[in-house]
Amino acid sequence: MIVIKRVVFYLLMAWCSVAAQAVYAQQTAVNIIPQPDHIADNGQTFTFKPSTAILLNGMPVNNLHFFNSYLKQVANLRLKVYNRAALNPNQIRLRLDNKFDLPAEGYHLKVTVDSIVIIAGSRSGLFYGLQTLVQATRYKGKKLSVPGIEIKDKPRFSYRGMHLDVSRHMFPVNAIKKWIDLLALYKINTFHWHLTDDQGWRIEIKSMPRLQTVAAYRNETLIGHKKEVPHQFDGKRYGGYYTQQEARDIVQYAKDRHITVVPEIEMPGHATAALAAYPALGCTGGPYATATYWGVFNDVYCAGNEQTFSFLEKVLDEVVEIFPSEYIHIGGDECPKDRWKACPKCQQRMKELQLGNEHELQSYFIKRISNYLAGKKRRIIGWDEILEGGLTPGATVMSWTGEEGGIKAAQQQHDVIMTPEKYVYLDYYQSLHPTEPVAAGGYTPLKKIYSYEPVPAVLNSQESNFIKGVQANVWTEYMPTVIKAEYMMFPRLLALAEMAWSAKEERSYPKFVNKVRSQLPLLKQFGIKAADNFDEITDTVEISAGGLPMLKLRSTLPGASIHYTTNGTAVTSGSEVYTSPVNIKNTAKVNASLFLNGKRVQRNYQKSFTIHKAVGKPVTLQSVPSGGSYNPGNTNILVNGLFGTDRYNDNQWLGLSGQDFLAVIDLGAVQAVRQIGTHFLNYHWQKMWAPQKVVYAVSTDGKSYRQVFEQSHFTGNGILTIGTSIPSARARYIKITATNQGIIPAGEYGAGGKAWLLVDEFIVN
Ligand code: ACM
Ligand code: ZN
After folding, report:
1. CA-to-CA dists, residue 146 to 14, 68, 185, 601, angstroms
2. The ligand 1 atom nearest the CA atom of 475
């Protein structure tokens, strides 16, 4: 069935390719992603002929499948293959030779009128030379050609990865193979396959049949975003798993494309599905059910039970037989310690080993598994929480919560893969447009992922050498289909590819985004409908010297113009052209559209401003907002006339983790005040809690305040408007106090951790 689908796919692609290439061929420059180290043009052109041959010089023909299927698809060409030199004037010659002294995976490519020569010191180098060639070919007038280029190229990082979660949603083997093709095309060499999690176990383990019959399935799946309550479910059983045969097939397919598959078997947390199958492995003994919604779950493998280790060892025995990678990913993230604290077996283990706390118990767990795998000549890699309680010798750290874990690990001379969620998580939104399909939260547009620099500036040069690479992660809670997953992956994965391969000084976003535009048809040829909204209108709002919101609009699309209206009317090509920042004087709905050659392109932009007495006025905060997503860097967002949205990723919310909020607004002069209001975000499933108490107070001198409002109970999910009309007061200063929920109570998501208090816009009338 899969074979038939693939044939149909290629036939379809061949049929579409002429049209696609016509667009692609309009590009004059050679646009290679990732940007090669050195590229020059010699003015010649190599044209493929039916007689064109490729001289493999010992490179396994398996490594040629990708290139060949591409030529077949685009131009119905099949290269003649020679293994020894044969006289043929129209040749592609691969030569394994380190005469250019390039590092592993580096290559030299020279295209002239009668030959294409790729020279590399390794087979992977030859392969990457061919991948560059795929991107450089043009199909026009039934002729396939390559411009005369000379490239010397090598990767910056040895580990260039993409992760894929198949627990939350599964994807067919042929989709995974297609994505592996794309990874190869963009010189990514590692496929991190996240095979187990709370919502489903996806790899066949023959000695543990209940992993197939129980852990591989969940009864139903959450509908919509987890922040929306009450949670709703689809009522449909969901699941399945990859057989060992399928996994081996994927491993081989990847190997033929110089990609290593690193399997991840999660432990000690994210284990609900496994516990559902084998409840004796949990601290309480269950019963457990495979999770049907997203989050972090308290039930984890019992660290005091020997059965846990014999189970995991049996699993790993089979895993290492399927996956030849040196690395085995053992997870290690988000393991709550609640059950261990209450479990006699776990506590007994801690006593016996004289462990000071549950973090050290986790460290023991990871060390024990690491030792087991070391006996099989494998190394472990784990998420940054494996630092807690002490890092296992030889472990590689995948730094996801931020860069701190990676920095610490590098300073301790451990290898590090950088994968900070704020920059390289592809489940985050790529656009703030209200019609953007639901995503995990956060905001990582193409430009932001491209801007990421994997080597933190605080590391010295010796420590920097421990940063082995960078990876983009595809968590699939909100990606139920292949189409949605591809929309989230592409083109952002291309940014990751360039960051991972290209020299730092070769990277330029304007050049990159031009290349991305020119590669959309190539992606389409591979059956990928990439997001093409990276050029849509984005904005920033500042406070002008006159104290008004000042709206700046921009687009990265060359030659395009932005037209706009500020009175809520629809934009046409006759509407005012945006040339400089717009001062927003009155409450207004701004509409804007992007036009290229008189034609509307991209989605329309819309933003509503509410002008009130506090707009543009100075705000003094008593506590500094917590780092990360909810620290806008200044207090302007609280008084810029813009209201934060329920997507909470719009940089309009100011957030405090566990801290109270106290702010004073100075209206500049004593005046009548009749209304005071503020917005809070109440999403317990995002660890965002309404305040315990809100107090508003007014003052004429900034010294003595009179309380005008107090409220202590708040209901409703989402944005809460806490406002009041007050008996006519005269005031210059307004003080807003909001008490943080503090610690998230038991039984709630994230219990025991700090609650976020998210605040936006003080509205004064
Ligand atoms: C992770 O994103 N929980 C590693
Ligand atoms: Zn236990």
Report:
1. 19, 15, 17, 31
2. 2
Instruction: State the residue for tokens 């000690």.
Output: 268
How many helices (H) and strands (E) in the chain?
18, 36
Element at 154 (helix H, strand E): none
Ligand 1: which of 294, 297, 383, 477 to mutate, most ligand atoms within 8 Å of CB?
Answer: 383
Which of 333, 397, 471 to mutate for ligand 1's pocket (most ligand atoms within 8 Å of CB)? 333
447-494 tens-digit pLDDT: 999 999 999 999 999 999 999 999 999 999 999 999 999 999 999 999
In the beta sheet, which residues pair with residue 599? 596
Q: State the distance from the centre of ligand 2 to the C-alpha of 301, rounded, in angstroms.
A: 7
Residue pair 639/762 in contact by the 8 Å Cβ criterion: yes
Long-range contact list for 526-529, CB < 8 A, 24+ apart?
526/13, 526/178, 526/181, 526/182, 526/185, 527/9, 527/12, 527/13, 527/178, 528/178, 528/182, 528/486, 528/490, 529/483, 529/486, 529/487
Question: Which residue among 296, 421, 474 has the greatest number of ligand 1 atoms within 8 angstroms of its CB, and so is best to mutate?
Answer: 421
386 alpha carbon to ligand 2 midpoint, in Å?
18
Compute CA 700 distance to the chain's CA centroid, rounded to the nearest angstrom: 49
> What is the rounded distance in angstroms from the CA atom of residue 86 to the CA atom of residue 14?
31
Ligand 1 centroid to 397 CA: how many Å?
Answer: 12
Q: Is the pLDDT of residue 611 over 60?
A: yes
Reference 539, options 601, 474, 606, 634; nearest CA is 606
Phi then psi dihedrals of residue 281, to 5 deg: -80, -5
C-alpha to C-alpha distance for 563 and 577, rounded to whole angstroms: 4
Phi, psi of 381 (to 5 degrees): -130, 145
Atom of ligand 1 lying closest to residue 331 CA: 4
**Rounded mean pLDDT, 413-430:** 97
**Residue 113: other Cβ atoms inside 10 A:** 13
Rounded to whole angstroms, the Cα distance separating 305 from 302 reads 6
Instruction: List the Cα angle 504/509/514 in 5-degree steps.
Output: 125
Which residues are paired to 121 by β-bridges? Answer: none
Considering only CA atoms, which residue is closest to atom 2 of ligand 1?
A: 400
Please list, residue by residue across 308-326, b when 16 or more beta carbons sit within 10 angstroms of its beta carbon and e when fewer do. bbebbeebbebbbebbebe
Neighbour count for residue 48 (Cβ, 10 Å): 20
Q: What is the pLDDT of residue 75?
A: 86
Residue 184: alpha-carbon gap to chain centroid: 19
Helix/strand/coil (H/E/C) assignment for every residue in 438-482: CCCCCECCHHHHHHCCCCCCCCCHHHHCCEEEEEEEECCCCCCCH
Note whether 117 and 95 are within 8 A (CB).
yes
φ, ψ of residue 252 to 5 degrees: the values are -70, -40
Q: Considering the chain, what percentage of its residues have pLDDT values greater than 90? A: 86
pLDDT at res. 21? 35
Given a contact cutoff of 8 angstroms between Cβ atoms, the answer to whether 398 and 330 are in contact is: no
Cβ count near 449 (within 10 Å):
24
Q: Which atom of ligand 1 is nearest to the CA of 398?
A: 4
Residues with CB under 6 Å of ligand 1 are 333-334, 383, 400
CA–CA separation, 557 and 161 (whole Å): 29
- What pLDDT, on a 0 to 100 scale, did the predictor assign at position 78? 85
Q: Which ligand is located closest to the Cα atom of residue 476?
A: 1
Which tokens sit at 20?
């696609």
CA of 206 to the centre of ligand 1 (A): 28
| Ligand 1 centroid – CA 166 distance (Å) | 14
The set of catalytic residues is 197, 270, 334
d(CA 177, CA 189): 14
